[in-house]
Amino acid sequence: MDKIEVLDTSLRDGAQGEGIAFSLQDKLAVVRSLDELGVAWIEAGNPGSNPKDADFFALAGSLKLEQAKLCAFGPTKKPGGKAADDPQLQNLLAADTPGVVIFGKSWDLHVAEVLRVSLEENLAMIGETIAFLVSRGRDVFFDAEHFFDGWKANAAYALAAVQTAREAGAFRIVLCDTNGGSFPKEIAAGVEAAAACLGLAGKEAAGEAGRPGPAAAGTAGPFLLGIHTHNDAGLAVAASIAAVEAGCRHVQGTLVGFGERCGNACLAALLPSLCLKMGFSCLPRGKLDRISEITRRVAEIANVSVPGDMPYVGSSAFSHKGGMHSDGVLKVRRSFEHIDPSLVGNNRHLLMSEVGGRSAIAERVKKIDPSITREHPVVAHLAKKLKTMEASGWAFEGADASFELLVRRELGRYKPLFTILAYRVMSEHPTGASIACSHAWAKVWVDGQDEIAAAEGDGPVNALDGALRRALLRFYPELEHVRLTDYKVRVIDGRAATAAKVRVLIESTDGPNSWTTLGVSEDIIDASRAALVDSIEFKLIGDIERKFKACL
After folding, report:
1. Which of 89, 123, 347, 432 fits a 20 to 30 Å CA distance from 150?
2. Which of 411, 439, 473 is the last residue of a domain?
3. Do residue 427 and residue 391 come from a single domain?
4. Is 397 inside any structural domain?
5. Span 334-358, mean pLDDT?
6. If you average pLDDT over residues 82-102, what whole number do you get?
7. Which of 431, 451, 428, 455 is nearest to 441 (CA)?
8. How far apart are CA 23 and CA 34, in angstroms?
9. Dihedral (Cα; 453, 455, 459, 462), 10-degree rounding
C-alpha cells in the first residue's frame, strides 16, 4: 500500500489550545501513548520557549521509543545575524532530536507587516537556517507558515519560499493552512502548484522523484510534500484529504484535534479515512484498532473529553437509536455502519429508548439470556415499559448499567445484594471553608446482618455515597476501589420550578471498567440514591459473574 507519514503535534500546536496545560509527566505520557499508536514523528515542543519544554528535551533521550522519532520546533534565524550564532537554533540543536521543524514565512503580508524584513532577506533566513541544521545532521522539516493564504495573495513568492527550503536541504516541505480558512479545492490547487514548482508531478509528488537538495544525515526514504491544516472553517480533515489526493504523503495534526483556536486536523478522524477508505498505510500493522483506546487516553491526560460524535472513535460513532436503524444494522451491518467498528477499536452501541424498537432490545437482552428472540414476550413487555418510563423522565440511552439491571428484573434474574433500611442526609453551612458541610448515615441489611455507617462529604451526594459504601465494605471489600467519575443532574420539566422531577446520571469506575447509572425523582437526593444503588449493584453482580465464569 502507498504510505502516509504521520506527525503528531499534540505537544506543540495542541498545547496552544485553550485549556490545555501539560505537565512534564503529561508530556512524557503522551509521547509513550503516541509511540504505542505508531506515529512516525512527534513534534514535542519548542525548547527555547519555556523551561518545561527544555526539561522535557533533557529527559527525552532516555525514552525508549519503538516507532516514533521526536522533533523540536522553532523559527528561522533572526534577521541580520548568522545562523551559527542564533540562540534559538542552538536550543534546537541542544534538544538533540533526530528531526527539527522550522517554520518560516511564505506570505508576503507576514514578511512585510509582521516579521518586517525584505522579501529577499526572509528567503535568505529560510535557506541559511535549514542549510545550517542539515549540516549538523538533522532531518529538517520546513513548515511553510500561511502557505495557502500566501499562495492566493502572491503565488510566486509563496512558491519561492518552499523552493528555497528544498534547495537548502529540507527533507519535508509542509504546506500550512495556518489560518484554517482555505477550502479543500484551494488546498488541492496549492499542493499541485507546490509540487510542480518542486519538480514533482503525479506520483512523483509522493516522493518518488523531485529536484534534490543536500542530503540530511539520517534521512530515511525520499523527499515528501506534507500538509498541516487548522479547523477554523470546520474543514481541517477534509482539507488534509484533498492535499493527500493532490500528492502529499506527509500529514500533520493532533490525535484528539485540539490546538490553536478551533484546533488542528484531528488525526483520530483523518487516519481511519486514509487507511480504510483510501487504501493508504498510515500506521504499523495492527495499530489502527487501538486508535479509539489511545485517543481516549491522550484526551484523559490533557483533561479534555473525546466528543461523543467524533468520527470513528467517539462513543456515539456507532450508536443506533432509531428502531429501523437498529433492526437494519443487526441484519446487514453496512446498511447503517460505514465501517466495522472493531477496525478502529470501537463498539456498536444500541441505545435503549422509546424509539429503539424490539430488535435493539432483544440484542441487549441476549447478553444476559442468549435464548431470547425478538418475538419473546419479555421483549414486548420491555418495549412497552421503556415507553412508559421515558414518559416519566427516565432515559436509559446513557445509562447502560441501569438498563441491564432493569432487564435482569424483568427476566427474574435479579436478587438484591443489599437493602438500605434507612438513611439520612444533613447539610449545614459552617464559616470554615475547609470543614465538610454535609453529613450522612446509612443502615444496610446484607444476608441477615445489618451495618450502620456515617460519613462527611463536600455535598449531600458525596456524603451519602461515602456512608453507603462504608457500610457495605464489611461485606463487599471490593467496593474500596470504586469511585464516581461524573455526576450530572437534568431538570425534566422546568415548569414545576424547584418541585420539578430531576434525572441524575452517575458514572462510576473501578479502574479497568466504567459504567453509568441513573435515578429519577422529585427529590434530588432520592434520585441520587437510586443511581448510587444501581452503580454498586452493577459492580457487585459483574464481579460475581466474572468469578463464576473463571471457575468454569
Report:
1. 89
2. 411
3. no
4. yes
5. 74
6. 96
7. 455
8. 17
9. -70
CA distances from 456 to 234, 462, 463, 474 (A): 47, 8, 5, 19
Asked if residue 379 belongs to a domain, the reply is yes
Domain co-membership, 122 together with 247: yes
Q: Are residues 488 and 380 in the same domain?
A: no
- 311 lies in a domain? no
Same domain, yes or no: 360 and 499:
no
351 and 254 co-located in one domain:
no
Residue range 49-56: mean pLDDT, rounded: 86
Q: Is the pLDDT assigned to residue 215 strictly greater than 70?
A: no
C-alpha cell at 461: 451526594
pLDDT tens track for 438-495 = 899 999 999 999 999 999 988 888 899 999 999 999 999 999 989 888 888 888 776 6
pLDDT at position 491 is: 86
Q: Amino acid identity, residue 245?
A: E
Q: Do residues 427 and 386 both lie within one domain? A: no
In the chain, how many domains are there? 3
Q: Name the grid cell of 15.
A: 498545547
Give residue for cell 430488535.
359
Which residue range is the domain that position 323 belongs to? 319-411
pLDDT digits (tens, 9 = 90+) for 122-137: 999 999 999 999 999 9
201 and 159 within one domain: yes
Query: What is the pTM (predicted TM-score) of this model?
Result: 0.73
Q: Which of 302, 334, 362 is the last residue of a domain?
A: 302
pLDDT at res. 379: 83
User: What does the block give as the cell for 232?
Assistant: 477554523
Range in 163-177, 230-244, 378-392 with the lowest mean pLDDT: 378-392
On whether the CB atoms of residues 471 and 452 are closer than 8 A, the answer is yes
Residues 123, 26 share a domain: yes
DSSP codes joined into one string, 72-140:
EEEEPPPSSS-GGG-HHHHHHHHTT-SEEEEEEE-SHHHIIIII-S-HHHHHHHHHHHHHHHHHTT-EE
> If we measure between CA atoms, which residue out of 520, 451, 521, 438 comes closest to residue 479?
451
Among 71, 32, 10, 74, which Cα is nearest to 265's?
Answer: 10
Q: Are 538 and 401 in contact (CB under 8 A)?
A: yes
Q: Which residues contact 49 (CB under 8 A, 6 or more apart)?
A: none
Please tell me which residue, 71 or 370, carries the higher pLDDT value.
Answer: 71
Give domain status of residue 308, yes or no. no
* CA of residue 166 relative to chain centroid, distance: 34
